[in-house]
Amino acid sequence: MSTLPLAISQCLSEGLAKISTSSQVAKIIIAGLKEQSSPSVPTIIDTKKIGRVIQGEVHIRPYKSSDFATVRDLFIDSNVGPDSFAALLARDQRTARISLFLYSLAVLGALLAFQPHRRTLGIALAFLGVLGSAVYLSIPYFVFKGHLKTALNGDMADIPKTFEVTETDDESELRGKNGFWVAECVGMNGEREVVGCVGMNANSPGATQIGSTTSELRRMVVSKDYRRRGIAQRLIKAVVEHAKERGVEQIYLTTSSYQDAAVKMYLKLGWAVKRHFNPTFLFEKVYIYELILDVNTCKL
């Protein structure tokens, strides 16, 4: 039997390298987006110090302008990082029907390339299978990159303006229905690190469609190194308390089946499913949930 032609060997090796490194697409996107952060605002997070800081107390407070870079980085990681919706969707795509078809196409092409009279066809099929797999597995990151840029250039570009945060000297105040909070971990040696954030916006399209006494929970993020410590619940409690003080009767939010832990937490805290639908994304169904919380009956 003849050896695999040089052309198909190069095609497969280059293509398989693209597939094996598809998970690195998220890292490239994250690095590129983080470079856009304002250089004048220092990033607080230092993963080398997590062992010390994680023992400290966590405080919930209104957002300050000095939190901008860290909040931005947390938001980017939550959208295209290793545990993000995009990453989980890409993981499931590896065993999706279209992926299996493309893998089969690549293998069939490789087998045909051994046959002299079908060598050209085999090379073409193998190339299409490998390249198609690489592109298909990378699509979620590029789709979410577009969504992420829209958010970063929208409400996340000017948090004080969007969420009505007023700063006086070193303090921040929330004077309207809107608000934005951060979870700050204070280490034993006094070091401070922002490890989570959440916003509430009564002017969002989702909130205004429901009614004037409804606000939307937005930009809920907790650092992956600090999850399962009750920080998300404490952030939500701050939102609910603010909502009660400002006459907000309902808090609306949207999430997906890929945030299973978040969905369970919201339901446990009193949110009810307003409606759900299952659009098809890249030939795979994703369940989107719209949840609503009655602030007056909430026990948080």
UniProtKB/TrEMBL annotation:
<feature type="transmembrane region" description="Helical">
    <location>
        <begin position="121"/>
        <end position="144"/>
    </location>
</feature>
<keyword id="KW-0808">Transferase</keyword>
<dbReference type="GO" id="GO:0008080">
    <property type="term" value="F:N-acetyltransferase activity"/>
</dbReference>
<dbReference type="InterPro" id="IPR016181">
    <property type="entry name" value="Acyl_CoA_acyltransferase"/>
</dbReference>
<dbReference type="Pfam" id="PF00583">
    <property type="entry name" value="Acetyltransf_1"/>
</dbReference>
<keyword id="KW-0812">Transmembrane</keyword>
<protein>
    <recommendedName>
        <fullName>N-acetyltransferase domain-containing protein</fullName>
    </recommendedName>
</protein>
<feature type="transmembrane region" description="Helical">
    <location>
        <begin position="98"/>
        <end position="115"/>
    </location>
</feature>
<dbReference type="InterPro" id="IPR050769">
    <property type="entry name" value="NAT_camello-type"/>
</dbReference>
<feature type="domain" description="N-acetyltransferase">
    <location>
        <begin position="146"/>
        <end position="294"/>
    </location>
</feature>
<keyword id="KW-1133">Transmembrane helix</keyword>
<dbReference type="InterPro" id="IPR000182">
    <property type="entry name" value="GNAT_dom"/>
</dbReference>
<keyword id="KW-0472">Membrane</keyword>
